[in-house]
Amino acid sequence: MNRYELIAPCHFGLESVLKREITDLGYDVTLVEDGRVTFLGDEEAVCRANIGLRSAERILIKVGSFRAETFEELFQGTKELPWENFIPADGKFWVTKAASVRSKLFSPSDIQSIMKKAMVERLKKVYHVEWFEESGQSFPIRVFLLKDQVTAALDTTGESLHKRGYRKLTAKAPIAENLGAALIMLTPWKGDRILMDPFCGSGTIPIEAALMAAHMAPGMNRSFTAMEWNHLIGKEYWKDAVEEAREEVIPCPDTDIQGYDIDEEMVNISRENARLAGVEHLIHFQKRDVGKLSHSKKYGFIITNPPYGERIEDKNNLPALYATIGERYRALDDWSLYLITSYEKAQEALGMKAAKNRKIYNGMMKTYFYQFPGPKPPKRKEPFGERESR
């Protein structure tokens, strides 16, 4: 087996969540940076990480790194990297994305063009050809420049890992699947506790919770770019990783997950997305206004992504909406509330101060994850397990 440095990008602010996930998979984390976690792994790790990580954006194989302050240094540094160890003579290769932070080289298009030329020059000498037809498998490359340090990596994932394969229909302002999963993992919620999302939209948070309760790996039912790299990662590794994931599934966990929305169309979309994810039997979706939010049981969780102005037309409604959220939450008995928003006056409108809040970047939008943890329930005598029947 080969030993790789693997890089997993994530949303800014969620690095600790991703680090814990990688550690739980059994791999050694070597570096945590803003929006990225680096760890060591082999071919098996590439497959298991793509299939099993819930909060990552993608899995990259690091080709190398070097310092470059000029385009000539970028060209020469790229040319020195061992591209032939990864890309065959008929491979289709290109720099799909270049990101630059606090570096002298900052033009993505120029960085992409120069690196492509340097790669071609090296591979021409290695393969003794003057022209590459690039008729074979795809090898997309991602490049990060941070303080003039260039890191080049192969993208094993293809479509971002937030594309689980279940969300064919979306709301106007959907939350990404990997962000929704990470928010849940930032809370103490487990599958045997009630979870309610009163602004479920297309159903992301309830569906991600149901996948967790059922121990269903998020990438179990999708494909990845590196599945075609048979010279690097044999098909048996992918097969074994999928089989491992399927063996972990609990088909009918004893769980109580609820998703509500004021829009009937969104409720129907949520149900369809849950069906596509294979968890429709684990979630109760219903049309309901947040003003009617209630539950007779104790110790539940509200985890939600309410409207916060940037993506709805009328910002004037926000104070009243958040006041209603606060009122309905306080009417519940010993519940916890976890809420992500960019609305700056959220705590004031809710009428309470969060015990914690975490800054998270949802794309380029700065948001805060406000946390209002409630008391823990008494210890249960029966462990959380599988229902005999439903």
What does this structure look like?
With 390 residues, the protein is an alpha/beta fold. It has 2 domains: 4-155, VC0802-like, CATH 3.30.2130.30; 177-216 and 225-372, Vaccinia Virus protein VP39 (Rossmann fold), CATH 3.40.50. It is 30% helix and 23% strand. The protein contains 10 helices and 14 strands. The chain has helices at 15-25, 43-52, 71-80, 108-127, 177-185, 204-213, 235-247, 264-277, 318-331, 346-350, and strands at 4-9, 29-33, 36-41, 60-67, 92-101, 138-146, 149-155, 194-197, 256-261, 283-287, 301-304, 336-341, 356-362, 365-372. The strands form 2 sheets. Strands 2-3-1-4-7-6-5 form a 7-stranded mixed beta sheet. Strand 2 and strand 3 (36-41) form a beta hairpin. The longest helix is centred in the N-terminal third of the chain and has 20 residues, at 108-127. Residues 386-390 have low confidence and may be disordered.
In short:
By secondary structure, this protein is an alpha/beta fold.
Mean pLDDT: 94
Which strands sit side by side, in order, in the main sheet?
Answer: 2-3-1-4-7-6-5
Structural class: alpha/beta
Number of strands: 14
Q: Encode the helix/strand succession as letters.
A: EHEEHEHEHEEHEHHEHEEHEHEE
CATH class of the largest domain: Alpha Beta
What is the strand content?
15-25%
Question: Spans of 5+ residues with little confidence (pLDDT < 50)?
Answer: 386-390
The domain count comes to 2
Assembly annotation: single chain
Shape: elongated
CATH architecture of the largest domain: 3-Layer(aba) Sandwich
> Whole-number radius of gyration?
23 Å
- Which fold name corresponds to the CATH topology of the largest domain? Rossmann fold
The major pleated sheet works out as: 7 strands, mixed
- End-to-end distance: 44 Å
* CATH superfamily grouping of the largest domain: Vaccinia Virus protein VP39
